[in-house]
Amino acid sequence: MNKKIIYTNSIAIAILAGIATLAGLFWKGLYQHDTISGTAQMMGQDLVTLVICIPLLIGTLYLIKKDSLKGRLIWMGIIFYFLYSYASMAFLTAYNQLFLVYVAIFSISLYTLLGELLLLDTKSIQKSFSPGVINKIAASFLVIIGLMLAGMWLKMIVDSILTGIPPATLETYTTLVIQALDLGVVVPAALLTGVLLFKGKEWGYALASIFLIKVSLLGTAILSMIYFMVQNGVNIELGQAMFFIIVTVLGIIISVAFYSQIKGPVNGNKYVEVHKGDIETIQVK
């Protein structure tokens, strides 16, 4: 993708997310129509997005300017985080004055990530990784995450269907947005990525690089959510809390080890520029 588009879209996401997170943390009454648990979770995520994810997003632009493959892949993982996070905000949060901001971040993140995925030079990415056991560990980690997440949510939903009692996590909301996103997007993506990486396929390396960053960032946000929930007297399911703590810690450790396998500034991406009606594919150097 053209670097100008990357910079423009990333800055737009950063500005909009800055507005959304600051409002979420300091605008009293913004989440007044959400439950205590929902408000605590959104404020917890607002904090992590503001102090960690937005600075990381801006920081990766410098790395992209230097044509760093690591920087580009980390950037894509961060964009995936914003895509998932603001999809949930747009679909789950009770309507408020920032609805269009949530939709804008979701939309920009979606098409930015898709645009970059379509132009990835996955063969170069695969060649940039040194062989090592960490690749198998990362693949196994992603498959285990997918299976455990699917098992956790499916058990909750199936129990609800069998008993006829709505899940407690539903509270006053009308549907399970997070569970729908996880079961419909995250679980299949984690399983597919893990299998591709385990087989040594080029797309496995590319997708795992992106997915591991998203897991690490979202896991950190979930830990912040748990803290805010405890502070507001919300009952926490110990099993789910332990699951996310373990996933987050392992995700960060595996991400660092996985990215350490990347050898130097390898050409890992390509983008398209238009000159007088002609389309020319240019390899980033």
Helix content: over 70%
Mean pLDDT across the residues is 90
Shape: globular
DSSP helix count?
A: 9
Q: Measured on Cα atoms, how large is the radius of gyration?
A: 19 Å
Please provide the ordered H/E string of secondary-structure elements.
HHHHHHHHHEE
Q: Class by helix and strand content?
A: mainly alpha
Proportion of strand residues: under 5%
Number of structural units classed as domains: 1
Largest sheet: 2 strands, antiparallel
Strands ordered across the widest β-sheet:
1-2
What is the terminal-to-terminal distance?
13 Å
**Which runs of at least 5 residues are low in confidence (pLDDT < 50)?**
266-285
Number-wise, the strands total 2
Describe the structure.
It is a single chain. With 285 residues, this protein is mostly helical. The chain has one domain (3-283). It is 74% helix and 4% strand. A two-stranded antiparallel ribbon has the order 1-2. Strand 1 and strand 2 form a beta hairpin. Helix 1 (3-26) packs antiparallel against helix 4 and helix 6 (133-163) crosses helix 8. It is globular and about 50 Å long. The two termini are 13 Å apart. 39% of the residues are buried. Residues 266-285 have low confidence and may be disordered.
Search tags:
4% strand; 285 residues; two-stranded antiparallel sheet; mainly alpha
Secondary structure elements and their pairing?
Blueprint: H1 3-26, H2 36-65, H3 69-92, H4 99-118, H5 122-128, H6 133-163, H7 177-198, H8 202-231, H9 238-259, E1 270-275, E2 278-283
Antiparallel strand pairs: 1-2
